[in-house]
Specification:
Blueprint: H1 3-11, H2 17-25, E1 34-37, H3 39-47, E2 58-62, H4 89-94, E3 97-102, H5 136-143, E4 150-154, H6 160-166, E5 169-172, E6 192-197, H7 200-210, E7 233-237, H8 247-257, E8 261-265, H9 273-288, H10 306-317, H11 320-333, H12 339-362, E9 365-369, H13 384-388, H14 395-400, E10 404-412, E11 415-422, H15 428-443
Parallel strand pairs: 2-3, 2-4, 7-8, 7-9
Antiparallel strand pairs: 1-3, 4-6, 5-6, 5-10, 9-11, 10-11
The structure holds glutamine.
């Protein structure tokens, strides 16, 4: 059921909050979508239901979001026994019924949920395939109806990509509209929390609850009012409709926008987005992850002295992909290489932002496929570069701080395909409007 249907059902007394909560708790997770189930917490929360639009709705959170008294593992050995001492701001705002914490790529680094220390989440449409990542557990849980909705985080596509692979709606808000307080940081200038839902309307509902300025996150701010629009002009950038892409994906996207006012356009610096993203995100990650030293919290490897304790703790506590990124980021920031890599990537980021600004002078929205391919097989992408390429259509959005949504527009050989709508900063309201139009067309 959707959020809307559950609220309706409760209102009409078709079922109680406790009944609906229990029905979700009884569902079996055959996909490894969850790392931790929080049955007791859910039952106690269902007992003291609040009055807001989400307070009666069960949900799940990606396991890099803090829920007081509950394990927050980030799918890492480093944090496997860590219990969060406070709630993330979004948890405080939602006041809903928490069913559990979902699987992810370790510290949200990945596109398939395969780098999780615990297990690989399976795609509900084909269990031999990945659900996408890094919010793969959240996407799979929503797609398999283990939860009505879930929260994820998106640094370079981690909400939109799994949404597209699992056939659900995934929304990444304008940078700064949702407080990051209580989200374990990966790359602070890119990270944003957002919902994975069954419908666009539900995504909008959740977004409206979690958005807003928070004094605990200095980068958060109040949303600006934007004029309502109805006559959307849509750009289709040629760099996102490349010949290497599956032609069937292209066809589905074209069909979904049929009848809308579209025009071909260009974001010429798109080819530099991935390299810029992987330098900036790893640089920020290398600084953010320095706090995991085995002294203050998390896993600690007993060692003969302090230095070997640091070294052994980090060598054993982090997985391969996380270490690869810490090394890459440390290198890019090191004196002598800073100008050649980090500083250059920041300049490239400006070019990418300008690309979008130019297109948005003429158009209201940009539409692209969310990914050049459908869900791939578990174990298929062994080479890290080929994994990084999965994000080719999503990372620019984070570099530019824009809002973007992925909505399902059909299937190819039983596997879902996602369409991405990118909007102007703060233009969420119109973006949801357009998403609803396309969603409706695709249901016909
Ligand atoms: N897949 C991208 C990465 O590996 C994005 C991750 C994310 O958005 N958290 O960095």
């Amino acid at each position: 059921m959707t959020i809307k249907e559950i609220n309706q059902g409760i209102k009409e007394k078709k079922f109680s909050v406790l009944e609906i909560t229990k029905s979700y708790l009884e569902k079996k997770d055959n996909l490894n979508a969850f790392i931790t189930k929080t049955d007791e917490l859910a039952l106690s929360q269902a007992g003291k239901e609040g009055d807001s639009i989400l307070s009666k709705i069960p949900y799940a959170l990606k396991d890099n979001l803090m829920v007081k008294g509950t394990k927050t593992t980030c799918a890492s050995k480093m944090m496997k026994d860590y219990v969060a001492p406070y709630n993330a701001t979004c948890v405080e705002k939602i006041k809903g019924i928490i069913l559990g914490k979902t699987n992810l790529d370790e510290f949200a680094m990945g596109s398939s949920t395969e780098t999780s220390y615990f297990s690989v989440t399976k795609n509900p449409h084909d269990n031999s395939r990945v659900p996408g990542g890094s919010s793969g557990g959240s996407a799979a849980a929503v797609a398999a109806d283990l939860v009505p909705y879930a929260l994820g985080s998106d640094t370079g596509g981690s909400i939109r990509l799994p949404a597209s692979f699992c056939g659900v709606v995934g929304f990444k808000p304008t940078y700064g509209t949702v407080s990051r307080y209580g989200l374990v940081a990966f790359a602070s200038s890119l990270d944003q929390i957002g919902p994975l839902t069954k419908t666009v309307e539900d995504a909008e509902t959740v977004f409206n609850v979690i958005a807003g300025k928070d004094k605990k996150d200095a980068t958060s701010f109040k949303r600006k009012e934007i004029k309502k629009n109805e006559n959307f002009k849509i750009a289709l950038p040629k760099e996102y409709f490349v010949p290497e892409m599956d032609n069937k994906i292209k066809k589905l996207i074209e069909k979904a926008v049929e009848g809308l006012k579209t025009e071909k356009s260009s974001l010429p610096n798109t080819e530099y987005a991935l390299p810029a993203y992987y330098i900036i995100s790893t640089s920020e990650a290398s600084a953010n992850l320095a706090r995991f030293d085995g002294i203050r919290y998390g896993f600690q490897k007993e060692s003969k002295d302090l230095l070997s304790s640091y070294l052994n703790t980090r060598a054993e506590g982090f997985g391969k992909e996380v270490k690869r990124r810490i090394m890459l980021g440390t290198f890019s920031l090191s004196s002598g290489y800073y100008d050649a890599y980090y500083s250059k990537a920041q300049k490239t980021r400006e070019l990418i932002k300008e690309d979008f600004e130019k297109v948005f002078q003429k158009f209201d929205f940009i539409i692209t496929p969310t990914s050049p391919n459908t869900a791939f097989k578990i174990g298929e992408k062994k080479d890290p570069i080929s994994m990084y390429l999965t994000d080719i259509f999503t990372v620019s959005v984070n570099l530019a701080g824009l809002p973007a949504i992925s909505i399902p527009v059909g299937k190819i050989d039983g596997l879902p395909v996602g369409l991405q709508i990118i909007g102007k900063r703060f233009d969420e309201e119109n973006l949801f409007q357009l998403a609803k139009i396309i969603e409706k067309k695709c249901q016909k």
